[in-house]
Amino acid sequence: MTKAITVSGLHKAFGRTHALDGLDLEVEAGEVHGFLGPNGAGKSTTIRVLLGLLRADSGAAQLLGRDPWHDAVELHRRIAYVPGDVTLWRNLSGGEVIDLYGRLRGGLDKARRAELIERFELDPTKKGRTYSKGNRQKVALVAAFAAKDVELLILDEPTSGLDPLMEEVFQSCVEEERRRGRTVLLSSHILSEVEELCDRVSIIRKGRTVETGSLADLRHLTRTSVTAELAGAPNGLSALPGVHDLDVQGHRVRLQVDSDKLDAVLRSLTESGVRSLTSTPPTLEELFLRHYQDEVTAAAGGEGARAR
Amino acid sequence: MTAVTADTRFAPRTGGTRPLAGTGALLRLALRRDRVMLPLWVLVVGGTTASAANSLGAFYDTPEERANVISSMATNSSLRSLYGPVFDDSLGALVSWRYVAFMGAFAAVMSLLLVVRHTREEEETGRQEMLASLQVGRRASLTAALLTALIANAGIALLVTLGLAGEGAAGALALGLAIAGVGMVFATLAAVCAQLTETARLARGLTAAVLGLAWALKAAGDAARTDGSHPLTWLSPIGWAENMRAFAGERWWVVLLFAAVVAVQAVVAYTLAGRRDVGMSFIPARPGPAEGRLSTATSLAWRLQRGALLGWGAGFLLAGIMFGSMTEGAADLVGDNENTKEMLERMGGQAGVTDAFLAAMLGMLAMVGALYIVQSVLRLNGEETAQRAEPVLAAAVGRVRWAAGHLYVAFGGAALLLLLGGLGLAVGYRKEAGPLLGASLVQIAAVWLLGSFAVLVYGLLPRLAPLGWAYAALSLGLGWIGPALNLPDAALNLSPFQHLPKMPGNAMEWTPVLVQLALAAVFTVAGLVGLRRRDMQS
């Protein structure tokens, strides 16, 4: 078995705020794992526990088979981290900082460093105070992707401030990391990026994991939107289990259906004769929103709904 | 491969393995970042002290002269509280007497700035988080910061030892160690404070407050006894530096006292650092109001600076009370001693001895007030370079209005501080406050002039904004050491304080006051015009 990250029942409180409330997370070696959640859900806190910056109050965490607090320094040789908000020293150049990070991690691939600087169009001679946010981000990205002998990359909203062109460069870099067999934990709010890159995702909320699995798995749990133009009037659709938001206007039908009940709906539609049909699987965004909106439902339904 | 069991618990809160990993690289990083600032501090503090034998020797060139001056200085408690006890009449001892406390305090300021800069400031900015994700042990950054301070203080000690070796190698070494010892005490104290507070600013303020207290304890203790043996003196690290007795039968065991306190404070800092998470503090920030009432740039400036002003105000009041209560002691002065009279005249007074003393104290408070106004004015530069000014200026706030908010606090605050100092003197001396408050207000002209110089530099040459300190530092140096050096008047006249009437004890002269106020207005306006025309710094 190879798990890059195993976290179970993690708790961390800051005063009266419970940042982590029994969080679980499993990342297989070699996969790109999306780490999603609304602001303040505990993503960064989890990452800081994984980096040994914070010590959890209770629960267990293992990183590449070792204790992230006790073995922090040894582990960091095998980890590259990119924070969401990179701060640089005002009077050091970007190139100096990349090399410092490289030396402190245990080695930098010179050729790769040069190639990445080229691809990210970074001027390494500028001083830290003169970089824009996107360029500061690039400094940390180049340092991470050029790291030698790294097994796991932990990226905490790494592309904030990057332009779409650079976003593309970033995505191809992550793709290359995957091909080299490295594991990536990617925390992000850019859902198209997650959809593009990630094998599996975990969605957390209020310091707990609410959903985890491959995108296909998650889609299965949610609804597909169907729009159809029929030859005759539809019948019996409203009686079918799993159908929501049914909207019939003459021969035109729009509905949402639980993905595992799709079969029965299609049968019913073909009975009336289908002229055109579009079926859209839920986007990650819809998945995401559903979990966020649960919050409202959970608040209304009391503790039971949240325990799931 | 064993499966990970769910009940794996976190290891106890220890430093983890290899807690010092990366210290060397972090030390090199610190030295690279401080490649200008650190050598400058070492040269100024160490070099000034090292060259003191020449400058003092030119003034007091015969042993008789020195003995004469020293005997009169040593018998007066008020002067002793300022400059410390004199232990011998050799030239070396004279240098030590005049410089050890002052330069020790300078080394302390340097050390606290260095240590906080490389510990709490790194955490506050988030840079530490990135470093800690690398091969950097939990104790590495604190160790690198303390080593940086050690290198700087060792540099000062070396310069002093080499520069004064001609007066006696042992004494030179003792003086160097005493100055560096004070530096290291405050380096490790700053390391402790950096664990306690969440912001670098507060960590610096806390350490500086202890430094102020140490100075006050030394001053009070020295006022009471001639040989520096008062318990209050022994409570102050600056007092220990005096008690090293450089060039006067050195007491080497005092080095052990420094070493012990440095060691204890370092242990406390390391222990605290091991008990907290990166970026967290033991004095947590209190939650603020959910809805704000700040509505103008001026109220924002006041909100940002009021904490610091409160601290300075308390310091001025307390210092005033302390100096005021020492004023009676000034009457002990041997009246017919020409040298002492001359010295006092140079320090500021002419009429009655108590008046002269009060005037000298007011002058000193005003010089410290200049430090307040410069740091308050340069807050503008801090806000600008940290990009916090940008969103304010992007709102419907002009540059001048934004700057004016901070300048009200700087200039108004400086006036308030002087009044508090004058009030403190009146309370301590138990005399009516009116004349003292008036006399303290006279000093405002020079303080404002030094503040307006900082506005001028900031407005016209923002990259060189730290030079705003230069004029204030020069005036402070001239006021402190100038009278003893017999510098030419042309040099002394550079300090605006030199031109103001020495009050109480002398009649009011309006001309210098008005000239300085006018000059301050011109500088301020010129600075603001420059600010309005130039590019904002990114």
Automatic annotation (TrEMBL), chain A:
Alphabetically ordered keywords of this record: Antibiotic resistance, ATP-binding, Nucleotide-binding, Transport
Pfam families noted in UniProt: ABC_tran (PF00005), DrrA1-3_C (PF13732)
GO molecular function: ATP binding; ATP hydrolysis activity
Domain ABC transporter, chain residue ranges per copy: 5-231
PROSITE patterns, alphabetized: ABC_TRANSPORTER_1 (PS00211), ABC_TRANSPORTER_2 (PS50893)
Gene Ontology, cellular component aspect: plasma membrane
Chief location: membrane
GO biological process, one term: response to antibiotic
Membrane topology term: Peripheral membrane protein
Cell compartments where the protein resides: Cell membrane
Entries under PANTHER family matching the protein: ABC TRANSPORTER ATP-BINDING PROTEIN, ABC TRANSPORTER ATP-BINDING PROTEIN NATA
Record family assignment: Belongs to the ABC transporter superfamily.
Protein name: ABC-2 type transport system ATP-binding protein
Organism field: Streptomyces indicus
Lineage, broadest ranks: Bacteria, Bacillati, Actinomycetota, Actinomycetes, Kitasatosporales
Automatic annotation (TrEMBL), chain B:
Annotated transmembrane regions: 38-60, 99-119, 140-164, 170-190, 202-221, 252-273, 309-331, 351-374, 407-429, 441-461, 468-487, 507-531
Keyword line: Membrane, Transmembrane, Transmembrane helix
Name used for this protein in its record: ABC-2 type transport system permease protein
